Amino acid sequence: MINIGLEDSNRREVTRVLNNLPSDEYLLSTKTKNYRWNVTGPHSHDLHALFGYQYARLDALIDQVGKRVHALGGNAFGTLTEFLRCTRLQERPEVRPSELAMAEDLYDDHEILLLSLRGTLAGNDSLHNDIGTTELLTRAIQEHEKMASMLQSVLGKHEQKWLKAQDAIQREIGIEVLASAGSAS
Question: What is the number of other CB atoms lying within 10 angstroms of the CB of residue 59?
């Protein structure tokens, strides 16, 4: 165990916090791999590549977290039982979604993780003296922001919001709105 200047109680708390992260990351990585293997449709080639890139990044992040837990003197979670007990994400094994529903599902999971990571950094006093863990969590946020942004581009989320705003304005001023491609009016 490396002496990083943390009290034992802080180490235990930081280890607990860190062990929740690979549980979520592992489920997201597995879901991303599943979607990569099973994606079909007009954008399947591009999504296959995107999902492959993303699960490789998630697997690297899981490895970094496990190494950090070990450096803090803890035992990193490493079993499916532990991961499934602690994850905040949902599996969807009975559903074979469309290619865009896959991207939407992954995007939603990245948003959940971003909120969780930001909350962890902001609300945990034990992390304030642990720069190594704080930096790791900050890098995790950056990774999830980048992956969410890529999925957002695939989904055209900015365009969808703009179209919905335009529809609302047109309705408000009395212009008939025709259903446009990609909008659910």
Answer: 15
In angstroms, the CA 125 to CA 141 distance is 18
Which residues contact residue 110 at a Cβ distance below 8 angstroms, ignoring those fewer than 6 apart?
Answer: 28, 144, 147, 148, 151
C-beta of residue 72 within 8 angstroms of C-beta of residue 1: yes
The fraction of the chain above a pLDDT of 90, given in percent, is 46
Domains and CATH numbers, the chain: 8-155 (1.20.1260.10)
Amino acid identity of residue 110, one-letter, is: H
Specify the length of the chain in residues: 185
Residue 168 has pLDDT above 60, yes or no: no
Q: Rounded to an integer, what is the distance from CA 7 to the centroid of its chain?
A: 30
Task: State pLDDT tens for residues 71-122.
Answer: 888 889 888 888 888 888 988 777 788 999 999 999 999 999 999 999 888 8
Is the model's pLDDT at 178 over the cut of 50? no
Largest Cα–Cα separation, the chain? 68
pTM, rounded to two decimals: 0.79
| Whole-number Å distance between alpha carbons of 154 and 160 | 12
Least Cα distance to 21 among 77, 81, 103, 90 occurs for: 77
Q: Which of 48, 64, 164 is nearest to 102 (CA)?
A: 48
- Which is it for the CA torsion 61, 63, 68, 72, positive or negative? positive
Predicted local confidence at residue 156, as pLDDT: 86
